[in-house]
Design goal:
The protein is mainly beta and 307 residues long. The radius of gyration is 38 Å and the shape is elongated. The protein folds into 3 domains: 31-115, RNA Polymerase Alpha Subunit, Chain A, domain 2 (Beta Complex); 125-214, RNA Polymerase Alpha Subunit, Chain A, domain 2; 217-305, Beta Complex (RNA Polymerase Alpha Subunit, Chain A, domain 2), CATH 2.170.120. It has helices at residues 10-28, 68-72, 162-167, 252-256; strands at residues 32-44, 50-53, 59-67, 80-84, 91-96, 102-103, 109-114, 117-137, 144-152, 155-161, 171-177, 185-192, 199-200, 205-214, 217-229, 235-240, 243-250, 265-268, 275-280, 282-283, 290-295, 298-305. The chain is built from 4 helices and 22 strands. Strands 2, 5, 8, 9, 10, 11, 12, 13 and 14 form a 9-stranded mixed sheet that branches. 17% of the residues are buried.
Length: 307
């Protein structure tokens, strides 16, 4: 028979005993305190074919108790309220919250949960196909309009509570920027739904194409005076012709709002000295109407020194 020697590894046994005594002294000397935390609610085991409707709680308040050293290291993310939904069925249901449903670190006890019960509403799950409605941001270049918009995919499947699915009419896209565009714009953008209770079954993005076309109507403003801009203080200038015709393009409503004095025509002579020049004539866009023609497009300009 093998004999047992009580003093074998005596040093290790003494060290283990001393360590245990030290840990007991540290723990026994740690003050017991309480602390309030707002912690996340984790929903598990939702039965197939059911959907949560209405307001869904994401957090609740708890009071925890433990040693001051232990609690000082506990964050709200370390404590989780787990709600098992396996027993759920359609309608409004009340789920009591108990200590058994709380995940807490070792050495921490839950002493209070607020609210003590959570009310949830369940509905049958439903699916519906709805069109994708492209959204745009900005305006095309002056004289151009949005002709048509399309999305690929053109329709998507929406899933959610039956009552919410019944009222959804479309899925929306992120806005596609068309600011200053004079040609078609195509962009891949994310899809979304306005109602947070709904979700997309498959598609998460769509390719949106925005057709940009010239505005349908033109209007000519005749004999608009040509202004000379940035003439140096010691110079004088004149232009021929002194008036020109300007043709704008836009929608019927845009063109009807424009008065002749709104159309400003000019030649820029900034930085030029005395002499004779052939310069381009410019006209500013008016609102969303674009300048498509200046007749004539150039002017003879004479610049002379002031005596």
């Amino acid at each position: 028979m093998k004999r047992l020697w009580p003093f074998r590894h005596f040093g290790l046994k003494v060290l283990s005993f001393a360590t245990a005594v030290l840990l007991w002294m540290v723990v026994s000397g740690d003050e017991i305190v309480e602390r309030g935390l707002r912690v996340p609610v984790e929903l598990q085991q939702l039965p197939a074919g059911l959907e949560l409707a209405g307001d869904i709680p994401t957090t609740l308040d708890v009071r925890v108790r433990g040693g001051s050293t232990t609690l000082s290291r506990v964050s709200p993310a370390d404590v989780v309220a787990v709600l098992d939904l396996r027993s759920a069925r359609p309608g409004r249901r009340l789920f009591p919250m108990t200590q058994d449903q709380m995940k807490v670190p070792f050495g921490v006890d839950v002493v209070q949960i607020t609210p003590s019960a959570i009310a949830l509403v369940f509905e049958a799950s439903a699916t519906r196909q709805v069109p994708v409605a492209p959204a745009v941001d900005g305006h095309p270049a002056p004289g151009y309009v949005v002709d048509a918009m399309s999305a690929v995919p053109a329709v998507v499947d929406v899933v959610g509570p039956e009552s919410a699915v019944k009222h959804v009419t479309e899925a929306v896209t992120e806005p596609v920027s068309i600011g200053g565009a004079s040609a078609p714009v195509r962009e891949l953008v994310r899809l979304g739904l306005v109602d947070p209770m709904l979700r997309l079954k498959n598609a998460r993005a769509a390719t949106v194409t925005v057709q940009i076309a010239p505005a349908p109507l033109e209007r000519t403003f005749r004999d608009r005076p040509v202004h000379l801009r940035q003439v140096a203080p010691n110079l004088t200038a004149k232009a021929a012709p002194s008036a020109v015709n300007i043709t704008l393009r836009g929608t019927r409503d845009e063109l009807a709002r424009i008065e002749p004095d709104d159309v400003v025509v000019y030649v820029d002579v900034g930085g030029l000295g005395a002499g004779q020049y052939q310069l381009n004539i410019h006209a500013n866009p008016v609102g969303d109407a674009g300048v498509i023609r200046v007749d004539p497009s150039t002017a003879q300009v004479w610049i002379a020194s002031v005596k």
